[in-house]
Amino acid sequence: MILAAVIIMGVSMVIGAVLALETKNLLVAVVSVGLVSLFASVLYVIMAAPDVAMTEAAIGAGLSTVIFLYALKKTKDRDTEDD
Predict the structure, then answer these.
(1) DSSP assignment letter at 47
(2) 22-31 contacts: CB < 8 A, separation 24 or more?
(3) What is d(CA 49, CA 44) in angstroms, rounded to the nearest whole number?
(4) What pTM was computed for the model?
(5) How do residues 8-21 score in pLDDT, each as one tens digit?
(6) What pLDDT digit, counting tens, does each position of 50-73 carry?
(7) For residue 80, is pLDDT > 80?
(8) Alpha helices of the chain — where are they, by DSSP H?
(9) Residue 55 belongs to some domain of the structure
(10) What is the count of structural domains for the chain?
């Protein structure tokens, strides 16, 4: 059961990473990178490392994604002001 969960999380992380690399939409790329980080934190919980999982979820999936989304919003606002 644990092996199946690890395989599912690993495959999900690879799919999310490929999606982030191949997409042209920056919003989709940021969200997929955040999902990869979230899947990594779930994987850390499965592998009995809750302290690493909490750090990855808070910093990797949470804070980094919010900062990227904020930067994306600010750059799109600047693009619309130039028109």
Answers:
(1) T
(2) 26/72, 27/69, 27/72, 30/65, 30/68, 30/69, 30/72, 31/65
(3) 5
(4) 0.82
(5) 999 999 999 999 99
(6) 999 999 999 988 999 999 999 999
(7) no
(8) 2-22, 26-46, 50-55, 64-82
(9) yes
(10) 1
